[in-house]
Amino acid sequence: MKRRSLWSWIVLVLAILYFGLPLLGTVDFSMKMRRGVYSLDAYWAVLGDPRFQATFLYSVVMACMTIVVGVLLVVPTAYWVRLKLPRWRPVIEFITMLPLVIPAIVIVFGYIRLYNTSSWLPLTGSALGTDALLTLGYTTLALPYMYRAVDTGLRTIDVATLTEAAESLGAGWITVMWRVILPNVLVAVLSGAFLTFAIVIGEFTMAALLNRPAFGPYLQLVGANRAYEPAALAVIAFAITWICMGLIQLVTRLQKHTMRV
Amino acid sequence: MTTAITPAEAGAAAPARRSARVSFAWLGIVPFMAFALLFLIVPTLQIVIGAFRDQDGAFTFANVLHLFQPSILSAYWISIRISVASALLGCVAGFFIAAAVSIGNLPRWMRGPVMTFSGVASNFAGVPLAFAFLATFGRLGLVTVLLRDWFGVNIYAMGFNILSFSGLTLTYLFFQIPLMVLIVTPAIDGLKREWREAAVILGASTPQYWRMVALPILWPTLLGTFALLFANAFGAVATAFALTGSSLSIVPILLFAQIRGDVLQDPHLGYALALGMIVLTGIANGIYIVTRSRAERWIK
Amino acid sequence: MAFLELSGVRKDFELVRVVRDFNLDVERGEFISFLGPSGCGKTTTLRMVAGFETPTAGEIRIAGRDVVGLKPNQRNIGMVFQSYALFPNMTVAQNVAFGLKVAGKPRAEIDARVAQMLGIIKLPQLADRYPFQLSGGQQQRVALARALAVQPQVLLLDEPLSALDAKIRVSLREEIRAIQKALGITTIYVTHDQEEALSMSDRIVVMHEGRVDQIGTPFEIYNTPATSFVASFVGTLNRIEGIIADPSAGTVRVGARDVAVASPLGARRAGEQVSLALRPEAVTLAPRPGQDVAIEARIVEVAFLGSVIRVRADIGGATITLDTFNSPASPPPRIGDAVTLHLSSSDWVVLAD
């Protein structure tokens, strides 16, 4: 028994070293901008950079748009498939898993060929069109996570009974979605949303190849040209990821709490 | 003449009648299908088909055959090596962490933080991860400097370089290991205590139990997760690009450069390059899905 | 000297004593059941015999050898679990062969033994199936074959039938008992089902809150329960509170009347509270030879259970449940009927608390 916990501790210490040192190293490096003393200079430099503010804001907006599109696309579909088309479930599930199989760089390569200025749908011809294309691209990236979260959420409630109950009370189907189904899968939707946010906010490949002024390409640019600011940006990015995961934990725990009461 | 209908027949007839009545139900998934076609399937098919077409749109194998030139083959080879190495090491390290958390007699409260951290770290890929490892294992990084000043070990003199195969593998492990932990911990939890007890009471030692019972049961999960990690590493662009720029010629970076500026002097070779990525990650994910369903059948 | 001896065995988990002062001698080839509700310590005792738990105090001897210091894989014990615990990655034949394989037996011997065991459990045709392709009853038979293949000194069964359907439970328990008798293997069977324990066992150990309440044959356990717990846990029972009327004459006041009780009342004095037990099948509505007690009563409830009709009758201050056999010739009694209950004064059991 004691030997069994000894090796566990060794494994854990090694893991903490491997995962802790890069975080420590990054924090340490980010505060070394001023020679000889620890300072937050790199952070002030980053936060004061107008391009940081612009690209970060752009990516936040893109993330929010992606979440909205994703929810509008996934929730009704997952609901409808569970309620009326159970036979289609394997097909839909397979499609939602495709973005894990097809690398993002390939998908965006296809966009560039398919929606260029000389094509039938020249989305890349205008900034607004490219933004729309990027949003839809991000939606595909988030699709596996969003669909899985929502479908799991729907599994825990009895979709058919809830729908029949609402319809017997005279509710139309938009009312059913908005007032009955969505509140019941809210935690699942929020989990998917936070995960989407974490993925989109620093995404590099799609934004770079579609030439949009997003946070990911900005990070790369700073990394190529500056010494200490990248470390500060990495700390900020890690904090954002951590906050998103923390929020997922929080809403999941809140739900458990309310369900118990 | 009247025909008696058994309850089973009646039951079988009812759903058929209902589905005939609401045969427009498929309309409900039209938006999703349209989205998937336009922004997922057709763009990919475009690339796949393009890989088999020449400049004039005629069918050809030339693009695929052009992949077999030394510079591209070496890019595939180093990509595969990095993906295999980071997937393999990620599987082994992740397995031990998962085992420590699941059956290693650690205090129970430690499980939650480990799983939460795994969720964070498995999503902490991309450009910031490259920065973190540059700040730690770069020439002026914390670990590099500490090893040099405290222990007199100069890892760069020993051949290590963060901008190389070993450096990239070390960096990828930061999201590979947590992904393994997330997937394999539930599988290890699924090993029933009774299996161990049944094996032991039949005379098996602990190594025998692991070799003959536990590892074979976990094998589909392990193999499948390895495939998933392979695909995960193979498709990663941002970390590698931010870390090495274009100094390390791996497939995703080559493709990235090709899309941006047609470095291969042949746009259709880019399609073939992408096709190779789809095939490799497709095979890996296929293995993952097949082995996964097999594992679920057993554990159930 | 008994084949399997437990003496003064005790087990504490943290501050809770889950098994206290357990003493038992099991003869070679005997079938012993540990019977009791969940949490009574029966499974913990079994797991101490197996070696999965270490006793806090006491000795466990198998064939005269103290096994407390031995690991489970050194004890040569067979065990069958409630959840079957078949290895899902192995076929039926590979499961049965497992113990022989880790023992390093030659291939030919393993194959012969596996075939023999599959013959004993009557599933030779399923040798190449995987556990997930078998029904629960089939899985448990394979688990039994796996446990017996290594020719263990002792066979332990931990609620092996609890996860199965009622019908399979009955047929499988007969099969287990037949195999056990044929092989003459010393067996401990843990169950919370009194019917299983009564029908299968040579002797039963009734456990309650970590204590042994009674050890005896099924006949003794059922007819002369030693404690009120045993009486209430095993079978259906009338339990009646009375006051001793005359210790020397052996009469107890129940409600408004005195009834004769043949069991010795011991050192109790008149006016003391006493608990009496009475099996429903001991009471009849028509007199039978040898019955020396007659009580006037009124029917308050009639339940038709098929072969048996369960009747509840009020005797003034207490209700007695009795079972009569169904007979198509005579209709069952009706509620409100005035009847006379007949029983023998020796049917009363005085319960120790």
From TrEMBL, chain A:
Topology class, membrane: Multi-pass membrane protein
Pfam families recorded: BPD_transp_1 (PF00528)
Subcellular location: Cell inner membrane; Cell membrane
Transmembrane segments: 7-25, 56-79, 91-114, 126-147, 185-210, 230-251
Ranges of residues in domain ABC transmembrane type-1: 56-249
Keywords carried by this UniProt record: Cell inner membrane, Cell membrane, Membrane, Transmembrane, Transmembrane helix, Transport
Gene3D superfamilies named among the record's database cross-references: MetI-like
Family: Belongs to the binding-protein-dependent transport system permease family.
Official protein name in the record: ABC transporter permease
UniProt source species: Alsobacter ponti
From TrEMBL, chain C:
One Pfam family named in its UniProt record: ABC_tran
GO function terms (MF aspect): ATP binding
Source organism: Alsobacter ponti
Keywords on record: ATP-binding, Nucleotide-binding, Transport
Name of this chain's protein: ABC transporter ATP-binding protein
Family of the protein in this entry: Belongs to the ABC transporter superfamily.
Signal peptide (from-to): none
Domain ABC transporter: 4-234
SUPFAM superfamilies documented for this protein: MOP-like (SSF50331), P-loop containing nucleoside triphosphate hydrolases (SSF52540)
Superkingdom classification of source: Bacteria
InterPro entries (UniProt xref): AAA+_ATPase (IPR003593), ABC_SmlMolc_Importer (IPR050093), ABC_transporter-like_ATP-bd (IPR003439), ABC_transporter-like_CS (IPR017871), Mo/tungstate-bd_C_term_dom (IPR008995), P-loop_NTPase (IPR027417), Transp-assoc_OB_typ2 (IPR013611)
